[in-house]
Amino acid sequence: QLAGLAVIAFGLWLRFGGVMADFASDKKSPEYFFTGLYVLVGAGALMTTVGFFGCCGAARESQCLLGAFFACLLVIFAAEVTAGVFAFIGKKVAIQEAQKIYEDIYDDYMKNPGGKVNKTIYHYHLALQCCGKDNMEQQMGLPCPENIQVPKASNCLVEIQNVIDTNLHLVGIVGIAIAGITIFGMIFSMVLCCAIRNTRDMI
């Protein structure tokens, strides 16, 4: 249950509290990346629910509930492995989606520097600590954060790639930790189930 709650909190933080949250808007967002986060939050909710039933099974010494607990953990483990492969394969797509969002905003700003997109592109630059995507001449006309030296400013497309890589590594670490907890949960549930069965046979 605690692991499930931790996964929910981690997924919600990445979605709404991290740097990637700045790429979410009403019209544009890297759907591929955020879909993975929603799956992560869903897995956390499922783990929390399954953990509750596992506690009930242990408290009542119910072989049926413990068997169901084991089966659910097995499904969660298989889903985690699948999601890990999915995230590894889809990393390039997620990066391309996020970069495309920035390029669209960048192009809109170049067409109309005084429009509403001025505030949006500055928000991106501030979150990513970068400015522009190509050469210094293009950087000079962009709204960049005051603490960034424009000639040395980072390429935003590169920063986007770095941010997604970092976040996916965090997701991978959390996934491995959850998989380990899941394996221990399956082992302990089977041991407890066998112990209950043996105790009843002796009685």
TrEMBL record:
What is the protein name stated in its UniProt record? Answer: Tetraspanin
Q: Which residues cross the membrane?
A: 37-59, 66-89, 170-196
One GO CC term, this protein: plasma membrane
Q: InterPro entries of this UniProt entry?
A: Tetraspanin/Peripherin, Tetraspanin_animals, Tetraspanin_EC2_sf
Q: In which family does this protein belong, per the annotation?
A: Belongs to the tetraspanin (TM4SF) family.
Q: Name one Pfam family in it.
A: Tetraspanin
Keywords, comma-separated and alphabetical: Membrane, Signal, Transmembrane, Transmembrane helix
Topology in the lipid bilayer is annotated as:
Multi-pass membrane protein
Q: Where is the signal peptide?
A: 1-21
Q: Which PANTHER family match?
A: TETRASPANIN, TETRASPANIN-2
Q: Which gene encodes it?
A: Tspan2
Give its localization: Membrane
